[in-house]
Amino acid sequence: MPRTKTRPNKVATVIVPVADQPRMTAFYCDALGFQPRVDLPFGPAGERWVEVGLGDETTTVALAPPGPGMATGNHATGISLQVDDIDAYHAQLREAGVDVDAEVMRAGDPVPPMFWLRDPEGNVLLVVQ
After folding, report:
1. Are 104 and 87 within 8 A, CB to CB?
2. Is there a contact between 84 and 128 (Cβ–Cβ < 8 Å)?
3. Which of 9, 14, 96, 119 is the most buried (most CB within 10 A)?
4. Tell me: the pLDDT tens digits for 62-81?
């Protein structure tokens, strides 16, 4: 009898270790447009497990306390955000004081217009159209 392989069926959560959860939650929600999804006690030291998400998307970003020996800040998160109007979003973030690239990069087809942004702890995210 052949065995069926079990495989993942989605990316559930991307974890970004952060030092200041309230500040980072406010940034991801207020500046970037995420919504709070989960905020629960976590661990014995009064820590919190915080997740934020976008619209109806099921994948979330956990803004979590760092694990043992993990540093916070200045990580390349690997997170890519898609927007319909990259120029408007870039301008909106710049006006809000977000650390974004000076300009939207336009390499031409098939590469979409894009720019990088840094959150308050220096973690890097990519925005594409």
Report:
1. yes
2. no
3. 119
4. 999 998 899 999 999 999 99
Residue 69, φ and ψ in degrees, nearest 5: 75, 5
- Topology adopted by domain 74-129: 2,3-Dihydroxybiphenyl 1,2-Dioxygenase; domain 1 (3.10.180)
- What radius of gyration do the chain's Cα atoms show? 17
Measured distance CA(55)–CA(110) in Å, rounded? 27
How many other CB atoms sit within 10 Å of the CB of residue 63? Answer: 28
The edge-to-edge listing of strands for the beta sheet with 60-64 is 13-17, 60-64, 47-53, 35-42
46-57 tens-digit pLDDT = 899 999 999 999
| Domains in the chain: boundaries | 11-66, 74-129
- pTM summary value: 0.90
Question: Which architecture characterizes domain 11-66 according to CATH?
Answer: Roll (3.10)
